[in-house]
Amino acid sequence: MSDELVEKVRAGNDHAFRMLIETYKQTIYRTVYSVLRNQKDAEDVTQEVFIKIYTSLPQYKNQGFKTWITRIAVNHAIDLKRKRERQKEELQDEHSSEVNLGLTDDVEAVFFRNERRKQVLGS
Q1: CA 123 from chain center: how many Å?
Q2: Is 73 exposed, middle or buried (0-12, 13-18, 19+ CB in 10 A)?
Q3: Residue 51 sits in which domain range?
Q4: Are 31 and 62 in contact (CB under 8 A)?
Q5: Which pLDDT does position 43 carry in this prediction?
Q6: pTM of the model
Q7: pLDDT tops 60 at residue 86
Q8: Residue 71 is part of a domain; what is its CATH number?
Q9: Is 39 inside any structural domain?
Q10: Which one, 37, 47, 87, 112, has the greatest CB density within 10 A?
Q11: For residues 6 and 84, what is the distance between their CA atoms, to the nearest angstrom?
Q12: Is residue 26 part of a domain?
């Protein structure tokens, strides 16, 4: 059945694509959710996966549609998870750099205050 729907979608039948979505949306959602563990992200990624499936259909070789779309879903979810983790790391690095800069500024300010005090008291 899936290969017939795929051929109809390739021929431009939008209704056939809607039928593919209805048939596989729960499978894709569960797959994506198992990677992301977040309902909102899983819903968003599920929609993105179907767009990716639609644009990738010309490359599909009729060798197990469910396996093929599941692989697309897993890869897309992992990519998003990695991207989010990199963003967290970058934010942590920026924060730690800002904290270090703040400490450096404080040390310098204390040093110069002490130097001024010495000059004032020493004069």
Answers
A1: 63
A2: buried
A3: 2-90
A4: no
A5: 97
A6: 0.73
A7: yes
A8: 1.10.1740.10
A9: yes
A10: 47
A11: 33
A12: yes
